Amino acid sequence: MPELPEVETVMRGMRAHLEGHTIIRAEVRRPDLRWPMPPGLAARLRGARVESFRRRGKYILMRLEGGDSMLLHLGMSGRVNLTRLDPAVPVAVAPHEHVVIETEEGCRLGLVDPRRFGAIDLMRTDAEDQHRLLAGMGPEPLEPAFTASHLHHTLAGKRTPMKAALLDQRLVAGLGNIYVCEALFRARLSPERLAGTIGPARAGRLVAAIRAVLSEAIAAGGSSLRDYVQPDGELGYFQHAWRVYGREGEGCPDCPGAPTCNGIQRLVQSGRSSFHCPRLQR
Question: Residues 6 or more apart from 160 whose CB is under 8 A from it?
């Protein structure tokens, strides 16, 4: 599933191609994805001007003139194809393309979702944060509200493992398996450590590590894993910078030659793989 850096990359691509454009064609090719499509979605999009974009956690919000926002979640396999329309070149329709938007300015968006775990909804822009999928989400990890003090107080008393706590969207929005593994490694914290044992100093290291990992991944266009590509068709490149994720059995990059290091190990927590260096992460 695309995580925060991938969703941010897609949102920025949509902003660059569609912001300020007027939608002249919208087509919905099936009645549902993970949930039913909003009634009359195509008709509500046609004629609307795209005002702005926002990302909240792993959700993209396309704000329209008139006060509506279209929410988009990519699910497990969803992706957005953005192209320029050329009357001399036939449109190449991708398999499993379920929603199409074309603008007066000559841009085309195609939402492709083979497994249909994604979602689309419409809401009032001034009620975005009350939407059932967004209400109750924690702070954005790259925004000022996500501080060491916030994290320390939020984790106080929790007896869940650190890895599970960080995946809880009520604690912090948008984090997923890949970037939690990478951030815990940089902060030298075990994914098995009880969340309530994180003091102020460790919380500070972890917040800094989360911010650094996410910022670097966004700059690299995200990580290309399974179905994810950027909206222009390019691959993300941050997977080449993974230090622990997916590297079971390899040497730890931060303790080369240490006789007590057994390399990167994998453990399963709540059905998800965690990758870590037991020597460095405590």
Answer: 168, 194, 195
Instruction: State how far the alpha carbon of 49 is from the alpha carbons of 52, 106, 110, 117, 129, in Å.
Output: 9, 14, 18, 27, 22
pLDDT digits (tens, 9 = 90+) for 14-62: 999 999 999 999 999 999 999 999 999 999 999 999 999 999 999 999 9
Beta strands in 85-181 (DSSP E): 97-103, 107-112, 119-124
d(CA 25, CA 220): 33
Q: Which CATH architecture does the domain made up of 4-130 adopt?
A: Alpha-Beta Barrel (3.20)
Judge if 4-130 and 148-276 fold alike in CATH terms.
Answer: no
Q: Whole-number mean pLDDT of the chain?
A: 92
Give the dihedral sign, CA 7/12/17/20.
Answer: positive
Q: Any idea where the domains of the chain sit in the sequence?
A: 4-130, 148-276
CATH number of 148-276: 1.10.8.50
Catalytic residues: 2-3, 58, 272
Ramachandran category for residue 82: left, alpha or beta (phi over 0 → left; psi -120 to 50 → alpha): beta
